[in-house]
Design brief:
It is a single chain. It is built from ten helices and 36 strands. The protein is of the alpha+beta class. The strands form eight sheets. It has an eight-stranded mixed β-sheet with strand order 29-30-32-31-33-34-35-36, with helices on both faces. A hairpin with an 8-residue loop joins strand 10 (120-125) and strand 11. The radius of gyration is 24 Å and the shape is globular.
């Protein structure tokens, strides 16, 4: 029998991904952002044809995709090599040249909504208001722009426009724990929830008709639920909730009188339908563990983008929400799902008794090398979930165990749990991690002294901090675009983040001592273990200065630090070539240090 070669690293990291998609008004075409040729572009799939074709050859990620009502024109937005300065273009639905609509290389233009007649594009932008944004509309026929609202005291994000275009719904962020929702009608603003002075978050607002909006909010509760606001009567009502779950991605189907939403709890998603006539809430059969986006076609068919731990992102469709057909066929070259690892969900007690949920990937016992990789997630107000991560699966295939805890501050466990990270970046979350490592050692799922730490963004920050404060627990560290100095993080953050960062991270003056205590740069003398640092030169969230500073400081002390600087990336990897380069370096680094 022919013996096949082992699965290559390149096979894993050349896996195709889908970031976003849109369905044409007649549902004949699916347009999606994918890296089929090694970098992101827009591709299309004509239903019934089964083979995609390219629409753009720009090699950049898109921020949104939207068809005009006739289905012949697509609106979309691109940045440049990860700089997140989104520019808006029009494009034929059959592909070709991009027509600039909103462009200024130094500013950001975010999609908000499209008028039902397709004549006006509503958007919000940093242009002329970098800190708080302005909301505006663009006449697609004349090119005329009109500012509708100037942001003040906190960033404003446009959520939706009413069918008659007399009203618009927007979100107003007043720090990290307060996001209010408003409807502006005839120049007056109506808060869609009661008691706007209270701490609450409104996540999304959608118009059902000119008089009623539906929204997702956690007003008065731990988890976001579905609510409505009747504009003429100024009345707010809770509609339904899923106990212990955060509701996201609201979609309305006026034709069938239904509202769809995703319900998230920790590591996994569910999808629900609420019937407005019967008032019945029904859980549907999601084909994946984590849902990125849900859409409802004009016919009432559902379209869903999602992934699971053992399968990459694909687009699915269903007529009833129970039987799903997969429209795309993205997999891993030369790998079948049975070769991958379904993570175990663990719950352990932290240092203060708080319960922490985690994912644990166990390799085949025959391949187990006895070492465990700690994977602290980014955010910090995000979570590690049951989604496909090529690096974690490949490490597991190579014999590494992987431990991914959702420490305090993670999303999906309620408002109180998520806010525990505010002004405590390096305290409770770090101790949750250490407690998890000790617990894992005690139950025999890991071995003391045989740990590595690999993390990106906030996970990169935690990697650096653990290196400085707990170097004895690890053999080596890999930091991907992680903050090294919280003062620098605050100073260089995008302007529209600064109000939230003051509450999430801290104030450089009032919280100076705590920021020093929680900054990895404070603990340089303890960082004596092997380390690899990765940074994107165009990163607007964690600027190159952060990685340069810690690499230079450690090298000045004689510490050997490997450093990969990617000139054409931002906060992550948009190009397959770069992902392969970095992940190969990570695996080589771990294998080399493991055998020392």
């Amino acid at each position: 029998m022919i013996k096949m070669p082992p699965v290559s690293l390149e096979s894993f990291f050349a896996t195709f991904n889908i970031r976003d998609f849109a369905v044409s008004p007649d549902e004949s075409q699916i347009v999606y952002s994918t890296n089929l040729q090694g970098s992101y572009d827009l591709w299309a799939l004509d239903q019934g044809q089964g083979y995609p074709y390219p629409l753009t050859r720009r090699g950049q990620m898109s921020q949104f995709i939207k068809h005009l009502p006739d289905g012949k024109i697509i609106l979309t937005g691109f940045d440049r090599d990860g700089d997140e300065n989104w520019q808006v273009y029009a494009l034929s639905a059959r592909g070709g040249e991009l027509m600039p609509l909103l462009t200024n290389a130094e500013e950001k233009f975010y999609f908000g909504d499209l008028s039902s007649d397709g004549r006006h594009l509503y958007f919000y932008t940093s242009e002329n208001n970098r800190r708080y944004h302005n909301i505006a509309k663009l006449n697609l026929e004349t090119g005329e722009q009109t500012v509708l609202l100037e942001g003040d005291k906190g960033p404003v994000d446009l959520s939706a426009v009413s069918p008659n275009q007399r009203s618009m719904a927007y979100l107003h962020s007043l720090g990290n724990t307060k996001v209010l929702g408003y409807v502006r009608i005839d120049g007056a603003d109506l808060c869609v929830t009661p008691e706007p002075e209270s701490r609450q978050r409104v996540h999304v607002i959608k118009f059902w008709d000119n008089d009623t909006v539906y929204l997702l909010t956690n007003y008065g509760e731990e988890f976001a639920y579905l609510a409505s606001c009747h504009i003429p009567s100024r009345s707010f009502s809770k509609v339904c909730a899923v106990e212990g779950h955060e509701l996201t991605d609201l979609r309305l189907d006026q034709r069938q009188g239904r509202i769809y939403f995703i319900a998230s709890r920790g590591v996994q998603d569910c999808v629900y339908a609420f019937d407005l006539n019967s008032q019945e809430l029904t859980e549907l059969a999601a084909p994946v563990s984590v849902i990125t986006k849900l859409e409802v076609g004009a016919s009432g068919k559902l379209y869903l983008l999602g992934r699971s731990a053992t399968s990459p992102a694909n687009i699915y469709t269903s007529s009833d929400g129970f039987a799903w057909d997969r429209l795309t066929a993205h997999g891993i070259l030369g790998v079948t799902p049975d070769q991958l690892t379904e993570p175990e969900v663990l719950v352990y007690p932290s240092y203060d008794g708080l319960e922490i949920e985690a994912l644990y990937y166990a390799p085949d016992p025959a391949a187990d090398n006895g070492h465990t990789v700690l994977w602290p997630h980014g955010g910090p107000q995000a979570a590690e979930r049951k989604w496909f991560r090529p690096l974690l699966q490949y490490l597991c295939l190579q014999g590494y165990r992987v431990f991914a805890p959702n420490y305090r501050g993670s999303s999906g466990y309620g408002e109180t749990f998520m806010n525990m990270v505010n002004k405590d970046w390096g305290g409770g979350p770090r101790l949750d991690i250490v407690a998890g490592m000790e617990w894992l050692d005690s139950v025999g799922k890991s071995e003391p002294g045989k740990w590595f730490c690999v993390g990106g963004s906030y996970g990169g920050y935690m990697t650096l901090l653990l290196h400085g404060r707990h170097p004895e627990l690890f053999k080596g560290f890999v930091d991907e675009f992680g903050p090294s100095n919280l003062f620098t993080t605050i100073e260089t953050a995008p302007e529209h983040w600064k109000a939230a960062d003051a509450e999430l991270i801290g104030d450089p003056v009032a919280d100076r001592d705590k920021l020093i205590e929680d900054s990895p740069m404070t603990y340089l003398d303890s960082m004596t273990k092997p380390m690899l640092v990765v940074q994107g030169a165009n990163d607007p969230r964690v600027v190159q200065e952060e990685s340069d500073a810690i690499v230079d400081a450690l090298r000045a002390r004689g510490q050997v630090v490997e450093y990969i600087l990617l000139p054409d990336e931002g906060h992550g990897y948009s190009k397959t070539e770069n992902a392969i380069k970095v992940y190969k370096a990570i695996v080589d680094f771990l294998d080399r240090i493991r055998t020392l």
